[in-house]
Write a structure and sequence with these properties.
The protein is α+β, with helices and mostly antiparallel strands. The protein folds into 2 domains: 4-143, Multidrug-efflux Transporter Regulator, Chain: A, Domain 2, CATH 1.10.1660; 150-210, Orthogonal Bundle (Arc Repressor Mutant, subunit A). It contains 10 helices and 9 strands. The longest helix is centred in the first third of the chain and has 16 residues, at 58-73.
Length: 215
């Protein structure tokens, strides 16, 4: 019997901007991965200039989240990630709930056993990525996608454990100083909003009003 969440996965599609917000990959990175053929969304139009020409499925988002962690946190090569990506995209729901990934020397090992692993000869520990946690976290992120309230727009927030305690835009995990860096590089408001679709013009206006010296 298919659960309500699984039914939602089947019928729900996510735009390029949604995928950026949910995975933490920038719009530019997702476009590059599409153009290079590394990761093409499940539903695409030949003319990528058209609105909604890239539609990602829930399973696309899961794979992107894992690939981002492997590439940016653990330094796994893109060449090796192509093999990993093919495996991830073919996995069943049961496998996403039960399998774990292990990474040693920037190589990914698929395994269904739990617990920390250690390579016997070198004594190096294997980094462990439980796929069920990735799946659960993405489900939570999807549920919260539309929950940025109107009163949060144009305001900042600071909480322990969020973005290493840096000031962020209220209702997001986007650090204010990340947008300030774009401003200092001469990016227009439109270019910044393309990179961070969850933000609004009043958010950018707030940063400009705060000035370069504001904490």
């Amino acid at each position: 019997m298919i659960s309500p969440m699984e039914k939602r996965e089947v019928i729900q599609g996510f735009s390029l901007e949604n995928a950026s917000q949910l995975t933490g990959l920038s719009v530019g990175q997702l476009r590059y991965w599409d153009r290079s053929g590394f990761f093409i969304p499940s539903v695409v139009q030949e003319n990528r200039r058209l609105a909604n020409s890239r539609i990602y499925t829930f399973r696309d988002l899961l794979a992107l989240q894992v690939l981002k962690s492997l590439r940016m946190d653990l330094g796994v090569s893109l060449q090796h990630l192509r093999e990993v990506k093919d495996r991830l995209c073919l996995m069943s729901d049961n496998e996403w709930n039960e399998r774990r990934l292990f990474v040693l020397n920037r190589r990914v090992v698929f395994d269904d056993a739990a617990g920390q692993r250690q390579e016997v000869v070198s004594g190096q520990f294997v980094f462990d990525i439980p796929l069920a946690v990735v799946r659960r976290n993405m489900q939570d992120a999807v549920e919260h996608l539309s929950r940025r309230h109107q009163g949060q727009i144009g305001h900042s927030d600071q909480s322990r454990g969020v973005a290493h305690n840096r000031k962020v835009f209220a209702g997001t995990r986007i650090p204010i100083d990340a947008v300030r860096a774009f401003i200092e590089e001469g990016y227009s408001d439109r270019q910044i909003l393309d990179e961070y679709p969850v933000l609004k013009p009043s958010d950018i206006r707030m940063v400009r009003q705060l000035g370069p010296q504001a904490a």
